[in-house]
Amino acid sequence: MMDLDFRRDPSILSTIVDAMADGVFTVDASGRIVAWSQGAERITGYASEEVVGRSCRLFEGPHCKGFSTLTELLAGGCAATAGTCHQECKLLAKDGREVTIHGTVRLILEGDGSVAGAVCNFFDLTPFIQANERIALLEEQARNRDAFGRLVGASPPMQEVFRRIRLAAHSDVTVFVSGESGTGKELAAGAIHSLSARKDGPFLAVNCSAIPESLLESELFGHVKGAFTGADRDKIGLFQAADGGTLFLDEIGDVSPLLQLKLLRVLQEREVQRVGDPSPIKVNVRLITATNRDLKELVASGSFREDFYYRVHVFEIRLPPLRERREDIPLLARHVINQLSREYGHPVQGIARDALQALMHHDWPGNVRELRNALEHAFVTVSGPTISLLDLPVELRQRHRASLPPDPNRPCPSPGDQVERRRILEALEQTGGNRTEAARRLGYSRVTLWKKMRKLAIDEEAVRGLAR
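Given the sequence above, the corresponding structure tokens read:
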């Protein structure tokens, strides 16, 4: 048994200190580091040989105080009792991260009472702070469920989106929402409206690319009876209908330059003219526009007016594609599963690890909309409380399987195994994927067939395909 009496063997104390999760170090009277534990290395990223002999001010940065209390204590500027101080502060780690720590500093005194140095132990608070920030963000999303709608995410890119939504909501500025298809641009526009002073007014949304150009002007501005063939009655446009509220124009990049000019006049004059009516009508509408196209390229090509671009591009909110915030996928999946469970009346409780891995590794060209569609597909096929990999769309499974590295531990199949694999596949094909009937034809029990299929890597997906 090891002798743990460190008074007889000082190296035991060093071993114990290095085994601690906390960081421990000592400094001399001038603040230069004398000893540095392995725990301190793990927290800061600095090895002992990189810091011993250097000033403890090494860890200070533009926004990091470092061990400032320690230097004050050594200089006699700390009013702590008995030469001890407790401190929570930020350190600048070796890789540039800001690390929040809580530490205790105690002076080491000479026999005559003069300061010989200090010993400090500290632990990393950063994971706790990040967890609390994440919880606070989720709680805020829960409180503002109606405001943020289905915009879900705790990643830094989405936190920036939420920050800019709040800023936009606190003013009446014209907002431009950019992002790929399926990222939730209309949801962002709705969130701005719901958090703004206009929340009690109407929120109307229109996809400009979905309405023929000949009808879009009438849809936006309205018309009077007889203005054109088929105009058998007066009609107010969306600008009038949204008076006092917010109008969201999606796919603004598809609007013709002529209609852009008319929209520019509405923004400048705050009035509309119905088709066939020369009399202007005052409107009080907050405009939000969006597109998945590059407006600067459209301006350069001449298909988008430069003056209109600067009028709608006052305050931009960019919605990141899902591939740039993969850490949000588990949160989004849980959110969508809960929604679909209520809609379908099927209480799915979770998603299997391999299925979640497939979601995490997919590039999601259709973004959140594609993710929801994939999970909705799973709700059609899932039979139990958990979504499995086989419940996901076949394209997603195939991409996931292709992305997996080969298993180095799987031996090459022997000639006998190859023959048996072909016999099993033929039996499954002849029985339309019916494993019970295939096992009877092969002279196996159903359990034996299942074990052989696993051993010989016969894909369950292929069997499902035979059954169709």
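The longest strand covers residues 98-109. Try to locate this feature in the token string yourself.
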